[in-house]
Amino acid sequence: MQQLTEEQKRKAELKLKKFKVKDTLCCPYCDTKLKKWMVPQTPFTMWPNEFMYVCFNDECRYFKKGWDVLAGQGMPGTYRFMFNPETGSCLSAPVLNQNAMKDGIAEK
């Protein structure tokens, strides 16, 4: 029987955590409780939802790694982990700085 590598174990654990986000409402990357974020209602709003759940932990590895990933693609900014409660899907929310989107937090 073949043993899983540490990388394979980490990926499997992350996949399971993403699957459970709808129940835990925790970021699968840092285990921080997601915050309810009110979707701004503008003519350019992409989502029909009133709110999403977002990881606002500035120390989250997903958020921190995003700076380098986007810089490598010639783009500024990073992204935050976001969960859509209506569809049950996990998304990336692009941000230009660490304060972006924070004014939409519904719960402090």
Report on this structure.
It is a single chain. With 108 residues, the chain is α+β, with helices and mostly antiparallel strands. The protein has one domain. The protein has 2 helices and 4 strands. Strands 1-2-3-4 form a 4-stranded antiparallel β-sheet. The longest helix has 19 residues. The protein is globular, with a radius of gyration of 15 Å. The protein starts with 5 loop residues before the first helix and ends in a 13-residue tail after the last strand. The model has no long low-confidence stretch (mean pLDDT 92).
Question: Radius of gyration, Cα only, in angstroms?
Answer: 15 Å
The biggest beta sheet is recorded as: 4 strands, antiparallel
- Order of strands side by side in the largest beta sheet? 1-2-3-4
Tally of individual domains:
1
- What is the overall shape? globular
Residue-averaged pLDDT, rounded? 92
Instruction: Sketch the topology as an H/E string, one letter per element.
Output: HEEHEE
Low-confidence stretches: none
Number of strands: 4
Strand content: 15-25%
> Structural class, from secondary structure content?
alpha+beta
Distance between the termini: 49 Å
> How helical, in percent, are the residues?
25-40%
How many H/I helical runs?
Answer: 2
Attribute tags:
108 residues; 4-stranded antiparallel sheet; globular; alpha+beta; 2 helices; single chain
Give the structure's gist in a few sentences.
This protein is of the alpha+beta class and 108 residues long. It has one domain. The chain is built from two helices and four strands, in the order αββαββ.
